[in-house]
Amino acid sequence: MRVARGAITGYARQLNETNWLTVLGYAWLLFLGLTLLLVVTPDAWRAPVKALGLALPLMLLAAKDLASIPDVAARMRALRRQGAGWGRWLAACLPPGLIGLARLDRAIWRDFFCWLRRQPTPARPSGLKLTYVEQGAYSAAVGFGLLTVLVELPLDAALVPLFFKDAAMVRNIHLAVALGSIYTLAWLLGDRWRVRDGYHVLTATHLDLQVGARASACIPLDAIEDAQALRQPVLQWRRAHPYRDIEAVNITPFDKPNLVLRLRADAACTITHHGIERSGVRYVFLYLDRPQQLLHALAA
User: Fold this and answer.
1) CA distance 293 to 295
2) Residue 221 gets which letter from DSSP?
3) Which tens digits make up the pLDDT trace of 84-104?
Protein backbone atom coordinates (compact mmCIF):
# COMPACT_ATOMS: atom_id res chain seq x y z
CA MET A 1 0.00 0.00 0.00
CA ARG A 2 2.80 2.38 0.89
CA VAL A 3 4.55 1.61 -2.38
CA ALA A 4 1.37 2.32 -4.35
CA ARG A 5 0.82 5.58 -2.46
CA GLY A 6 4.39 6.65 -3.17
CA ALA A 7 4.01 5.83 -6.87
CA ILE A 8 0.77 7.81 -7.10
CA THR A 9 2.35 10.76 -5.27
CA GLY A 10 5.36 10.70 -7.57
CA TYR A 11 3.15 10.53 -10.66
CA ALA A 12 1.01 13.43 -9.40
CA ARG A 13 4.12 15.55 -8.72
CA GLN A 14 5.51 14.78 -12.18
CA LEU A 15 2.18 15.60 -13.81
CA ASN A 16 1.93 18.83 -11.82
CA GLU A 17 5.39 19.90 -12.95
CA THR A 18 4.65 19.11 -16.61
CA ASN A 19 3.63 22.30 -18.38
CA TRP A 20 0.12 22.66 -19.73
CA LEU A 21 1.28 23.00 -23.33
CA THR A 22 2.77 19.49 -23.19
CA VAL A 23 -0.34 18.05 -21.53
CA LEU A 24 -2.60 19.69 -24.11
CA GLY A 25 -0.40 18.22 -26.83
CA TYR A 26 -0.78 14.72 -25.37
CA ALA A 27 -4.55 15.22 -25.08
CA TRP A 28 -4.75 16.35 -28.70
CA LEU A 29 -2.72 13.33 -29.86
CA LEU A 30 -5.04 11.02 -27.92
CA PHE A 31 -8.10 12.62 -29.49
CA LEU A 32 -6.59 12.60 -32.98
CA GLY A 33 -5.40 8.99 -32.72
CA LEU A 34 -8.75 7.67 -31.54
CA THR A 35 -10.57 9.75 -34.16
CA LEU A 36 -8.45 8.20 -36.90
CA LEU A 37 -9.11 4.79 -35.37
CA LEU A 38 -12.82 5.34 -36.05
CA VAL A 39 -12.12 5.00 -39.77
CA VAL A 40 -11.22 1.30 -39.43
CA THR A 41 -13.40 0.46 -36.42
CA PRO A 42 -16.32 -1.94 -37.03
CA ASP A 43 -19.77 -0.44 -36.58
CA ALA A 44 -20.37 -2.42 -33.39
CA TRP A 45 -17.37 -0.78 -31.70
CA ARG A 46 -17.72 2.74 -33.07
CA ALA A 47 -19.74 4.11 -30.14
CA PRO A 48 -17.28 2.97 -27.41
CA VAL A 49 -14.25 4.19 -29.40
CA LYS A 50 -15.94 7.54 -30.01
CA ALA A 51 -16.70 7.84 -26.29
CA LEU A 52 -13.06 7.04 -25.47
CA GLY A 53 -11.92 9.68 -27.94
CA LEU A 54 -13.75 12.28 -25.89
CA ALA A 55 -13.24 10.82 -22.41
CA LEU A 56 -9.50 10.03 -22.36
CA PRO A 57 -8.27 13.53 -23.29
CA LEU A 58 -10.66 15.06 -20.74
CA MET A 59 -9.48 12.59 -18.09
CA LEU A 60 -5.86 13.57 -18.77
CA LEU A 61 -6.70 17.26 -18.39
CA ALA A 62 -8.69 16.55 -15.22
CA ALA A 63 -5.77 14.57 -13.77
CA LYS A 64 -3.44 17.49 -14.49
CA ASP A 65 -5.88 19.85 -12.77
CA LEU A 66 -6.26 17.59 -9.72
CA ALA A 67 -2.49 17.23 -9.39
CA SER A 68 -2.25 21.00 -8.87
CA ILE A 69 -4.55 21.04 -5.82
CA PRO A 70 -1.64 21.37 -3.31
CA ASP A 71 -0.36 24.41 -5.21
CA VAL A 72 -3.86 25.93 -5.28
CA ALA A 73 -4.16 25.44 -1.51
CA ALA A 74 -0.79 27.15 -0.96
CA ARG A 75 -1.87 30.11 -3.12
CA MET A 76 -5.14 30.36 -1.21
CA ARG A 77 -3.32 30.48 2.15
CA ALA A 78 -1.01 33.20 0.85
CA LEU A 79 -3.94 35.27 -0.44
CA ARG A 80 -5.77 34.91 2.87
CA ARG A 81 -2.75 36.30 4.71
CA GLN A 82 -2.62 39.19 2.23
CA GLY A 83 -6.35 39.93 2.47
CA ALA A 84 -6.66 39.75 -1.32
CA GLY A 85 -9.86 40.54 -3.22
CA TRP A 86 -12.18 38.03 -4.87
CA GLY A 87 -10.61 38.55 -8.30
CA ARG A 88 -7.24 37.26 -7.13
CA TRP A 89 -8.95 34.37 -5.33
CA LEU A 90 -10.66 33.37 -8.57
CA ALA A 91 -7.41 33.62 -10.53
CA ALA A 92 -5.66 31.48 -7.92
CA CYS A 93 -8.11 28.65 -8.61
CA LEU A 94 -7.20 28.56 -12.29
CA PRO A 95 -4.15 26.58 -13.46
CA PRO A 96 -1.22 29.03 -13.89
CA GLY A 97 -0.20 27.16 -17.04
CA LEU A 98 -3.51 27.90 -18.74
CA ILE A 99 -3.36 31.54 -17.69
CA GLY A 100 0.16 31.66 -19.11
CA LEU A 101 -0.99 30.12 -22.38
CA ALA A 102 -3.75 32.73 -22.61
CA ARG A 103 -1.13 35.48 -22.17
CA LEU A 104 1.11 33.82 -24.76
CA ASP A 105 -1.80 33.49 -27.19
CA ARG A 106 -2.64 37.18 -26.78
CA ALA A 107 1.00 38.18 -27.33
CA ILE A 108 1.37 36.05 -30.48
CA TRP A 109 -1.85 37.41 -31.95
CA ARG A 110 -0.56 40.92 -31.22
CA ASP A 111 2.67 40.04 -33.03
CA PHE A 112 0.63 38.63 -35.93
CA PHE A 113 -1.18 41.95 -36.39
CA CYS A 114 2.18 43.74 -36.15
CA TRP A 115 3.34 41.50 -39.01
CA LEU A 116 0.24 42.41 -41.02
CA ARG A 117 0.97 46.11 -40.50
CA ARG A 118 4.66 45.52 -41.37
CA GLN A 119 5.80 47.14 -38.14
CA PRO A 120 9.45 46.89 -37.10
CA THR A 121 10.32 44.56 -34.25
CA PRO A 122 11.07 46.11 -30.83
CA ALA A 123 14.64 47.33 -30.31
CA ARG A 124 17.02 45.15 -28.32
CA PRO A 125 19.65 46.37 -25.80
CA SER A 126 23.18 47.18 -26.90
CA GLY A 127 25.80 44.53 -26.34
CA LEU A 128 27.16 41.29 -27.76
CA LYS A 129 24.62 39.75 -30.13
CA LEU A 130 24.05 36.04 -29.65
CA THR A 131 22.04 34.82 -32.64
CA TYR A 132 19.97 31.65 -32.75
CA VAL A 133 18.24 31.65 -36.16
CA GLU A 134 21.04 31.99 -38.72
CA GLN A 135 22.28 28.39 -38.50
CA GLY A 136 19.27 26.71 -36.89
CA ALA A 137 16.28 24.93 -38.35
CA TYR A 138 13.66 27.47 -37.21
CA SER A 139 13.03 28.99 -40.64
CA ALA A 140 12.73 25.54 -42.21
CA ALA A 141 10.30 24.46 -39.48
CA VAL A 142 8.10 27.52 -40.03
CA GLY A 143 8.17 26.97 -43.79
CA PHE A 144 7.19 23.33 -43.33
CA GLY A 145 4.38 24.35 -40.98
CA LEU A 146 3.02 26.88 -43.48
CA LEU A 147 3.20 24.32 -46.29
CA THR A 148 1.45 21.71 -44.16
CA VAL A 149 -1.42 24.06 -43.36
CA LEU A 150 -1.87 25.06 -46.99
CA VAL A 151 -1.81 21.43 -48.15
CA GLU A 152 -4.18 20.33 -45.39
CA LEU A 153 -7.08 22.48 -46.61
CA PRO A 154 -7.50 20.93 -50.10
CA LEU A 155 -6.86 17.45 -48.68
CA ASP A 156 -9.59 18.01 -46.11
CA ALA A 157 -11.98 19.18 -48.81
CA ALA A 158 -11.24 16.12 -50.96
CA LEU A 159 -10.98 13.30 -48.40
CA VAL A 160 -13.46 14.04 -45.61
CA PRO A 161 -16.57 13.47 -47.81
CA LEU A 162 -15.18 10.03 -48.67
CA PHE A 163 -15.26 8.89 -45.02
CA PHE A 164 -18.33 10.72 -43.71
CA LYS A 165 -21.69 10.70 -45.50
CA ASP A 166 -23.52 13.00 -43.10
CA ALA A 167 -23.53 16.48 -44.67
CA ALA A 168 -23.70 18.20 -41.26
CA MET A 169 -20.71 16.20 -40.01
CA VAL A 170 -18.71 17.06 -43.14
CA ARG A 171 -19.56 20.75 -42.76
CA ASN A 172 -18.53 20.76 -39.09
CA ILE A 173 -15.22 19.04 -39.86
CA HIS A 174 -14.48 21.51 -42.68
CA LEU A 175 -15.26 24.40 -40.32
CA ALA A 176 -13.05 22.97 -37.55
CA VAL A 177 -10.14 22.40 -39.96
CA ALA A 178 -10.51 25.90 -41.44
CA LEU A 179 -10.53 27.55 -38.01
CA GLY A 180 -7.58 25.43 -36.88
CA SER A 181 -5.65 26.36 -40.02
CA ILE A 182 -6.31 30.08 -39.52
CA TYR A 183 -5.20 29.82 -35.90
CA THR A 184 -2.06 27.91 -36.87
CA LEU A 185 -1.18 30.43 -39.58
CA ALA A 186 -1.59 33.31 -37.14
CA TRP A 187 0.65 31.61 -34.58
CA LEU A 188 3.33 30.73 -37.13
CA LEU A 189 3.44 34.18 -38.69
CA GLY A 190 3.13 36.01 -35.37
CA ASP A 191 5.94 33.98 -33.82
CA ARG A 192 8.11 34.38 -36.93
CA TRP A 193 7.68 38.18 -36.94
CA ARG A 194 9.58 38.54 -33.68
CA VAL A 195 11.85 35.47 -33.78
CA ARG A 196 13.29 35.62 -37.32
CA ASP A 197 15.53 38.62 -36.53
CA GLY A 198 15.80 37.90 -32.82
CA TYR A 199 18.90 37.35 -30.73
CA HIS A 200 20.05 37.30 -27.13
CA VAL A 201 22.25 40.11 -25.82
CA LEU A 202 25.18 39.93 -23.42
CA THR A 203 25.78 43.30 -21.75
CA ALA A 204 28.35 44.34 -19.16
CA THR A 205 25.95 43.51 -16.32
CA HIS A 206 23.48 40.88 -17.48
CA LEU A 207 22.43 38.36 -20.09
CA ASP A 208 19.22 39.46 -21.83
CA LEU A 209 17.38 36.45 -23.28
CA GLN A 210 14.39 36.63 -25.60
CA VAL A 211 12.78 34.21 -28.03
CA GLY A 212 9.76 36.05 -29.40
CA ALA A 213 6.81 36.13 -27.05
CA ARG A 214 7.60 32.63 -25.81
CA ALA A 215 10.42 33.37 -23.38
CA SER A 216 12.38 36.26 -21.93
CA ALA A 217 14.76 36.78 -19.03
CA CYS A 218 17.25 39.29 -17.68
CA ILE A 219 19.91 37.29 -15.82
CA PRO A 220 22.62 39.15 -13.87
CA LEU A 221 26.07 37.87 -14.74
CA ASP A 222 26.89 37.20 -11.10
CA ALA A 223 23.86 34.89 -10.95
CA ILE A 224 25.43 32.52 -13.51
CA GLU A 225 27.36 29.87 -11.61
CA ASP A 226 28.50 27.88 -14.62
CA ALA A 227 28.05 27.62 -18.39
CA GLN A 228 28.95 24.67 -20.52
CA ALA A 229 28.44 23.39 -24.05
CA LEU A 230 25.84 20.67 -24.42
CA ARG A 231 27.03 17.94 -26.77
CA GLN A 232 24.43 15.33 -25.85
CA PRO A 233 20.63 15.20 -25.58
CA VAL A 234 19.14 16.93 -22.55
CA LEU A 235 17.71 13.67 -21.20
CA GLN A 236 21.14 12.04 -21.29
CA TRP A 237 22.77 15.08 -19.64
CA ARG A 238 20.05 15.01 -16.98
CA ARG A 239 21.02 11.51 -15.89
CA ALA A 240 24.41 12.84 -14.83
CA HIS A 241 22.96 16.09 -13.41
CA PRO A 242 19.55 15.27 -11.87
CA TYR A 243 17.08 18.11 -11.42
CA ARG A 244 13.35 18.63 -11.09
CA ASP A 245 11.30 19.84 -14.04
CA ILE A 246 10.44 23.10 -12.28
CA GLU A 247 14.16 23.85 -11.90
CA ALA A 248 14.84 23.93 -15.64
CA VAL A 249 13.65 25.96 -18.60
CA ASN A 250 14.25 25.48 -22.31
CA ILE A 251 14.70 28.75 -24.22
CA THR A 252 15.19 27.82 -27.86
CA PRO A 253 13.36 28.83 -31.05
CA PHE A 254 13.14 25.25 -32.35
CA ASP A 255 16.50 23.49 -32.26
CA LYS A 256 17.77 21.23 -29.52
CA PRO A 257 19.79 23.07 -26.85
CA ASN A 258 23.56 23.19 -27.31
CA LEU A 259 24.42 25.15 -24.15
CA VAL A 260 23.30 25.06 -20.54
CA LEU A 261 23.56 27.79 -17.91
CA ARG A 262 23.59 26.79 -14.24
CA LEU A 263 22.27 29.56 -12.02
CA ARG A 264 23.13 30.08 -8.38
CA ALA A 265 20.58 28.88 -5.85
CA ASP A 266 20.12 32.45 -4.59
CA ALA A 267 19.89 33.98 -8.08
CA ALA A 268 17.42 36.87 -7.92
CA CYS A 269 16.06 36.70 -11.44
CA THR A 270 12.68 35.92 -12.94
CA ILE A 271 12.28 34.06 -16.22
CA THR A 272 9.09 34.43 -18.23
CA HIS A 273 8.33 31.25 -20.13
CA HIS A 274 5.08 30.61 -22.02
CA GLY A 275 3.42 33.51 -20.21
CA ILE A 276 4.42 32.36 -16.71
CA GLU A 277 6.91 34.18 -14.49
CA ARG A 278 9.16 31.53 -13.00
CA SER A 279 11.60 31.84 -10.14
CA GLY A 280 13.81 29.21 -8.61
CA VAL A 281 15.14 28.10 -11.99
CA ARG A 282 18.60 26.53 -11.74
CA TYR A 283 19.21 25.35 -15.33
CA VAL A 284 18.61 27.35 -18.50
CA PHE A 285 18.98 25.41 -21.74
CA LEU A 286 19.77 27.51 -24.81
CA TYR A 287 20.40 27.07 -28.50
CA LEU A 288 22.92 29.48 -30.02
CA ASP A 289 24.36 29.59 -33.53
CA ARG A 290 27.80 29.99 -31.95
CA PRO A 291 27.71 28.77 -28.33
CA GLN A 292 31.47 29.26 -27.89
CA GLN A 293 30.90 32.99 -28.34
CA LEU A 294 28.97 33.18 -25.07
CA LEU A 295 31.28 30.74 -23.27
CA HIS A 296 34.37 32.79 -24.14
CA ALA A 297 32.66 36.05 -23.17
CA LEU A 298 31.58 34.71 -19.77
CA ALA A 299 35.05 33.30 -19.11
CA ALA A 300 36.79 36.59 -19.98
Assistant:
1) 6
2) G
3) 777 777 777 777 777 888 899
